[in-house]
Amino acid sequence: MTPSGKPKRASKRLMDDALGGDHRKKLNLQAKPRFHERIIYIFLLACGLLSILTTIGIVAVLLNEAVSFFTRQQWSTTNKAVFAEISEDITTFSTTASGASLEDGGIIRIGQEQLLVERYERNAIEMAITGTGGGFEAFCAGDTVINNASRAITDAEIAACADNDIDPVAFRVGTDALAVVVNPNNSMVNDATLAELALIFGEAETWQDVRDEWPDEPIMRFIPGTDSGTFDFFAETLYGDETDRMLASDPVTSEDDDQLTRGVRQNTYAVGFFGYAYYAEDSDSLKVLNIEDVTPSAATVEDGTYALARPLYIYSDATYMQENHAVAAFIDYYLVHVNEDIETVGYFPASEDSLTQAKVTWLEAMGQDVPSDLSDVDRLLPDVDLYQENGIIEIAGSSTVAPLTERIADRFHEDGFLPRVFVERGYNDTQAVTHRAGQSIEMEERPTLVEFFTGTEWIPATGEFGVLPLITSTLIISAIAMFVSIPLGLGAAIYLSEYARPNVRKTLKPILEILAGIPTVVYGYFALTFMTPLLRVFFGDEVQIYNMLAAGIVVGILIIPLVTSMSEDALHAVPDALREASFGLGANRLETSIKVVVPAALSGILAAFIVAVSRAIGETMIVAIAAGSGPNFTFNVFEGAETMTGHIARISGGDLSYDSIDYNSIFAIGLTLFVMTLGLNIVSRWITNRFREEY
After folding, report:
1. Tens digit of each residue's pLDDT (9 = 90 or more) over 262-318
2. Phi/psi of residue 34, each to 5°?
3. Rounded to whole angstroms, what are the CA distances from 471 to 306, 460, 474, 475, 595?
4. Domain with 503 in it: what CATH number?
5. In total, how many domains does the chain have?
6. How do beta strands 168-182 and 309-317 pair?
């Protein structure tokens, strides 16, 4: 190098020329891409962008439809219908009594017209059969406003009512004759005296114990329950104060008279008693006995010659009648029309004097003047405009009087006592138009997030929006699947990675992964036709045909290859140096596998488990076939329950109207499922990063 530095400058110039510029910059040694490589690059970029856009599109659709499910105006048929034709200017109209109730302030739709419900009157008659005694108990407690009674109220029951400031008022509505019946095949038994009846329903063991010429066969007895007024009347007539004699023979008792008639029909040497109306319904298959040589009929009941005739009543309270005018209107209607229907029900009309007295009692209870001339009994009570009556009428009591009260109640509804809707017409800019009778009513349904995630009933068509049963069954089946797949899959992975020779590993791993290629519909029928019968062998009939346990086990079998393959890859990636170090310290193969290799591959194994859980949650065909086809909030794995994916498959395969509440509900469930699997993937990524080992 000369003092002038020229050689140094020349060397730098030569280096810059060789390197093509500033040699201090990072060198790019890659060859320039060729044309076909650019095409491949563009194709891969397009695939990546398409995947991203597809994912964004799916999420956008799910969000849009799910938001619609919670916010859009949905419509659900109430099963109610307009009772009569309504013109454009009518704002109050009656509906049929069936279907869901409407709420004040809610929006309903008839055709395309929307209406605001200003007030809704449910107007219903609710009746329970409890027996006369049970009915008086409820009536005196203030739980009902009318009691059907096949006997007069007792002093003890009057006292119980008085404790609650209830003053029972009796209305005689007719007369019943108890029918004592036997099976028609018992040809020798045709009549009995009261004394013989006492033996038949008391101490006699066989028919021959009552009369020598009767069959030497055991007597089977079917009688009303002890809460029944029929029981009280019959027992008191035969035994006086010794009513326990009728129970000494351990008879079959029931408050359901249909069950009693069925028992007598099905047993040749059976005997029973109940209201004459129930015999009249089955007179072709039952034989009624003459009592004291008297056959029950309208004439013998009216003149008192038939020994087992009794009065029928309904009871109410003057305060109830005055405060709830619908109760007073119903009793008024009852007394006016009872004789038009009583014989068709199978009872006998009360005498004219008894019915007149009942009408006078109504006037007195309502605080109205009683006319001095009672001859025109048909005009004694005021006319009732049922279209103006509103209220709920709770009735309980005698099964004997119930058929008559039901008949009157049906007429009461037919003549105008129906649910009534007070509305604002043409709401939401719709036009008020004439609607024909019978046109169905739809009501607005808008589920809430709280109801969606906490409700235990999922029936969108009827306004039940609790997704919890679907989530619960999905998680239970997934948990069962993981209990099956984790030990088997991890065990297989450890064997393939740590124990199997290379040629064995190369053979077994593809064979195991063939399981993943079997169509899931095949797995579904395998669960239904093999796994369920196998479980029933061990657990009996407690295992239902469609059940979560069989579905969960087979889903577990399905994901074993996934767990095995991913876990084996993670185990195989552990450096051999760790194994050799463990062997050098004296550990055997099992200790090395469990204490060294598995912990070293823990991040990959846990990621495999999380992916397997996601696969189990997203499985459709197996659960759709084997788990059940109806939402069921249960933790009993032997029962059937529909999962989220199974429900989507079932509903979407049906005839759904676009934009209906059922249609939108599919996307709400789908979004919930997406969020669950997304959460699992996030957890999987966190676990992978948290437990990753660098080698």
Report:
1. 899 999 999 999 888 778 788 888 999 999 988 887 778 877 788 888 889 999 999
2. -85, 175
3. 66, 16, 5, 6, 37
4. 1.10.3720.10
5. 3
6. antiparallel
